[in-house]
Amino acid sequence: MDNLSLASSGSALTSRIFAVVILCILLLCLSRAEAQKKTATPERVPTGMSITPTAALGSTLQFLNPDLPGMPEYLADHPIATALSPDGNTLLVLTSGYNRVSDIKGKSISALSNEYVFIYDVTHNPPVKRQALPIPNTYMGMAWAPDGKTFFVSGGMEDNVHIFTQDQSPDQNEARWSESLPAISLGHKYGLGNGDEEGNRNNKPIAAGLTVSADGTRLLVANNANDSVSLVDLVQRKVIAELDLRPGKNDPAQKEVPGGEYPYDVVFKGNDKAYVSSLRDREIVVIDLRAAPAITARIKTRGQPGKMILNPAQTVLFAVADNSDSVVLVDTGKDRVLSEIKTTAPTGMLSARSNFKGANPTGLALSPNDRTLYVTNGGTNSVAVIHLDRELDEGRVRGLIPTAWYPNAVSVSRDGKFLYVVNAKSIPGPNPGNCRKDFATTGDRPCALAQQYVWQLEKGSLTTIPRPAPEALKILTLQVARNNHFPLPAKHPESDALFAFLHSKIHHVIYIIKENRTYDQLLGDLEKGNGDPRLALFPEPLAPNHHAIARQFVTLDNFYDSGEVSGIGWNWSTAARATDYVERTIPMNYADRGIGYDVEGMNRGINIGAPRAEDHTHGEAEDQDDQLPGPADVAAPDGPEEDETGAGYLWDSALRAKLTVRNYGFFANLAHYSATPNGGPAVPLLHDPAAAGVRVAFPTNVRLQDITDPYFRSFDMRFADYWRFKEWEREFDGYVKNNNLPNLELLRLPHDHFGNFSEAQDGVNTVETMMADNDYAVGLVLEKVAHSKYARDTLIFVIEDDAQNGADHVDAHRSIALIAGPYVKQGAVVSRYYTTVSLLRTIEKVLGMKPLGLYDAFESPMTEVFSTKQRSWTYTAAVPKILYSTQLPLPAPEPRPQQKSGDLASWSAPMHDAAYWSEQTKGFDFSVEDKLDTDRFNQILWNGLKGEDPYPSERDGRDLRENRPALLREFNKSKD
């Protein structure tokens, strides 16, 4: 029985009956929809859910083309905000995302790599784009002046505010907007957080949300990285006051009290009062602006308050709240919460799964009559339609409207007839994808480099949706329900029986996360499955164990990593979802737009999970005692229940289920592996730190503190995965001896990320040897378990956190998943669409754990991988021949039959030495995963391993499963 059924049988039955009634009504509406001959073909996204962007009758979708010179088909990504002009004629769309254009070497071209304000004339349907104004950097903030003749945009890491004015023209169609220079500087040298003795130069200031006073004379800006707001006099164009929002900065008695951190959005009420949303501390700060700015109240919220709006009478403030999937309504007279409305779905639709989070409300807008609130749910790709009561203190979701992937903001036309929704992403497709002749084909920028990095392939869009009538809204609600696998989970008796059997037999799971490889990179040359050998950078001689495991057990050739990059991928791989904060900030972080890498328990370079204040930083921090006090992690997902703030990770669910957990390398403070600028020592590189009694692991999550192996070195490219295996083996042998192997082991084997070639130990200092080292470590784990008493009741799952560092002919998210152990099918190819979420749901079902959020709660486990008849298994690790060129202590080589991989069968030495790879990656920072120019790194990997082979330029996603022997023969012949 699924352990979701925690409520009493009576209430559960009532919920089911209610849900069935709703479903029947919606099915009736669907039949009526078919009569309208309106169809919506779902597109599956790598989270496991589907989208139907234009399901609403009469809706249109437009991509965001900034009309770059020489790049007529370039499209921008990650629109984050919309703003309708006071007269209702002009819509502004602001991007805050990746938006980088690469040159032939994969390096960003600064002149073409901007954010944008798109200006649309919405007197037409669909809207007509009039301009695309480039801005170097932005972060969400955009607001109109009351007269509609000026608008303002926050400058993000530029720490300024841009002012745009309309050129005088009697013809609306001829009106043009241009920047009124100079931009207003906010005067910050750096952002808060861990840095060095020269003044926290590692963290940039970030200008975020902004708002204009009713009389148009003053502007207030949220300084996201400085925990303050700046008050600007628009007549003088200068900052006239700054208020620190942290309690200890306004009252010494409240030093080390959390509050006001990560301010995001701001809203003026009239001329003298404002509200600021504080993400980390889950509060809305109330500011009196009649004289010197002063804090008058702190309104606590369950979730993380984000964007905010006021009703026209300014009596009620509405704020979306991530991690509670709700909208908070605040009485602005008494500055207290009136009510909170869940945005995920109509009441009763989610049945027993109503507590699970992941809808990620991102933006909101009111209808002209104030009776309907529209909220974009980024996580469920929908707009919630909420009907409000007359007093505006209560409301409920009446229906849902489907959108494209991850809607970020919504505006409503002045007559209330249209919704304007911007969507952050699109399905990337193959990388390299189809190359068009009129796109980036000049001599110095070949088609092969047509911006194929995953963030460049996911494009933003603007959807115009006619306001649906009540009957149509019911139809659209059903479509959203189908897209997200609710209202009722499908019944699969055979699957339920299988996992009940597995739960009774399997008592241990070892979950291995690696770094950044695609399916084609690793298994493109496998003799079965849908791989393209031309894209195989790491063929069988370099990764014999990956090939052998896929061959011996199950070849999963249609598996997708849910996250695009490590910054998001580690959240999906450990929580089956990413919070809105992560979805919003990581694209900007990877574009080097100043936003920090606030994931895996680190916020602003501070280890907020450390139990002692002195362990929070490894370096210098200004006012260390008052920087991010308390354990709150701004990026962490909440668990399903009310009291599970930041406890939405896999290990949290395991611990709640009373299972035992051991962590090897997940969520660690990697700063300890480098010396501090003021001379503090780095943790030494030791093969056997346990024997020396030297701690090398520093967890960043509170609940990992006591269950982490202190002698297991986390992400450090100088250190071979072989030695990580040896430390894991040391503890495993002890568990075997004491018969106490944990139920869930989290094992990080990161060396297939590559890097730090000049400093790498043991001669494992090239891309080829690092890949082989990673491959061998995976094989050794399987071998160890297979030859132990735990072979009969242990499953091993292997996954990449993302697939960003390589090409794939099917999709930029397609990657490998390896599963081994008892009851895993052998010799099978499984081509069903599976994702990171599917794999986590499988682990949960096997171990009897509760799901983490909406995604895995509604996802099916990987049923086709298992068979109750396949009890026995074994495995012996293969030593990649190239590892004998290193100093690792390997067993004596054994003669093995030559692999069928063309001229690579005799690959026993790297093509290039460490000096080559060091020179190619000069200036790259490998201290943390992905802290580098990843697009350029991909090109370096291809050139270094493929030599003169041209980077593939045309892929069509075709099925290469059939007639693979001939395909491989043709490929190997071409290599002779």
Provide an overview of this structure:
- Helix 1 (9-35) packs across helix 4 (470-483), helix 7 packs across helix 13 and helix 12 runs parallel beside helix 13.
- Strands 8, 9, 10, 11 and 12 form a 5-stranded antiparallel sheet that branches. A 5-stranded mixed sheet has the order 37-38-32-39-40, with helices on both faces.
- Helices cover 20% and strands 23% of the residues.
- It is built from 18 helices and 42 strands.
- Residues 1-39, 196-200, 434-449 and 899-905 have low confidence and may be disordered.
- It is an alpha+beta fold and 976 residues long.
- The protein folds into 3 domains: 1-122 and 302-488, no CATH class; 137-300, 7 Propeller (Methylamine Dehydrogenase, Chain H); 494-576 and 644-946, Alkaline Phosphatase, subunit A (3-Layer(aba) Sandwich).
- Strand 9 and strand 10 (160-166) form a beta hairpin.
- The radius of gyration is 28 Å and the shape is globular.
